[in-house]
Amino acid sequence: MLGVGMYTTIKTLWKKGNNKSQIARATGHDWKTVDKVIKKLEKGIEVPKHKKRKSILDPYKEKILSHLEEDLTALRVYEKIRDIGYKGSYSSVRRYVKGIKEKDNIFVRIETPPGKEAQVDFGYVGLTRTEGGKRRKTWVFNMRLSHSRMDYYQKVYDQKVETFIGCHINAFEYFGGVPEVVKIDNLKAAILEANFYEPSYQQLYKHFSDYYNFSPLPCRINQSNDKGKVESGIKYVKRNFFAGRKFSSGKDIDRRLRDWTDRANKRLHGTTRKIPLTVFIKEEKQKLRPLAYERFRMPKVGTRRVYHDCHIYVGYNYYSVPHTYVGKEVDIELTDTLLRVSYRGEDIAVHPVAEGRGKFRTNYSHYPKYKRYDSTRYQEKKRAKMASVGPYAEKMFDLIVEDSPNCWGRKVAGILSLKKSYPEKIIEKSCKRAYCYRAPSYQIVKKICKTQAYTLPLEEDTYEFAKV
Asked: Can you give the pLDDT at residue 36?
């Protein structure tokens, strides 16, 4: 029986004017076989088509497609569908997945309306010289408006979050507005988990996008068409600006890159056959969202471990977080006025920045209920420990609670810890002196113990206050 391919070959040769004998010689088939095919063609009977064979995997096709969207391997797909009833072999799944991927490898051109989208990415351009003559790894940042193909380029020496955000701000100011969506590659600078459906943005970038009122959208893994425009922009600047040029310094790159970018935006674009700047001015600029009234103030970011007393230490001061995070690493963002604390992308505490050093910013609700300082039982327990040192230590306890009702625990614990280094009599005398001078401070009590200032006489105006 002839295959579909051979039927097609005989039909093609016959339509080109070859006789049956010539076709038989060319195909290697018997003349009678060729004759039968041509008679069918003369009667208008088309070449038989292969019937599509059903696969035992067809009932699982939707599940398989969804797992492939998650970038799972054929083995993981096999394990997933086996859990829901598939009884076939792994090799069948592997062939099925391969067939889907081959059919799905089709490029679809994506066009977007003006003002809707920008795409961003970094491209490595090699080692360049800095102002001091040192050679450093260098990248170029590109933001491309998807509709007009208007480009912004910037040279950078790293891909940190702060750098990434700074490039965004400069690009927005270059365009004079903000697109509705910024499509980003799965960069470590912007995304913690490269999952298209449930992206976990690094908090700083998320707060930045909220501030400028745009939606960040990560590209799907291994889907180059999602960010094809900016990838073309990166290739363009590499080949047409960086390739074959030498630069004396970073400032030299910056100056020449700005000039080149302005000229590049006036060229005839190879795909759209339009000038990006012209399209931008006529169609896109007015569709961009307005810039923020003030530039985004870049906070300092970092991580801190939560102490057992539910506080973290930032800038010589202490800030509380919920007790469930004790012992864990949390992320911080610190501005001139505000400290924001987050854990795995979720805000868990916000505090005004404390002035000076050694200060506490404590939210009572962050403590477990039985440990809160307003708990009578807990407070009386600590008072009893201070009273065991002496009457002035107990009075110091009351003074500390009065002065620091929300964070007296550390100070009291500090005074009690002095028992490791000094007799209780010395601590009691030191508390008396600190109490008489209205100094509710662990550090002062400690200093009095160390310098033996408790041996000094009290001034006359403290006598009445010193009476027990």
From this structure: 85
214 found inside a domain = yes
What is the extent of the structural domain holding 166? 117-287
Q: What is the DSSP letter of 299?
A: -
Write the burial class of residue 372 (CB in 10 Å: 0-12 exposed, 13-18 middle, 19+ buried).
middle
Report which of 132, 275, 120, 272 is spatially closest to residue 209, judged by C-alpha positions. 120
* Helix 31-42, helix 20-27: angle, nearest 10: 120
Average pLDDT in the 443-456 region?
Answer: 93
Residue 306 clears pLDDT 50, i.e. is over it: yes
Contact between residue 115 and residue 180 where contact means Cβ atoms under 8 Å apart: yes
Domain count within the chain? 5
Alpha-carbon distance 172 to 210, whole Å?
14
In the sheet that 311-314 helps form, which strands lie side by side, from edge to edge? 311-314, 317-320, 360-361
Tell whether 145 and 248 lie within a shared domain.
yes
**pLDDT reading at 261 higher than 60:** yes
Q: Are 262 and 181 found together in one domain?
A: yes
Q: Which helix (H) or strand (E) covers residue 276, if one does?
A: helix 276-279
pLDDT in tens, 328-383: 999 888 888 889 998 887 889 999 998 888 888 888 788 876 555 555 677 888 88
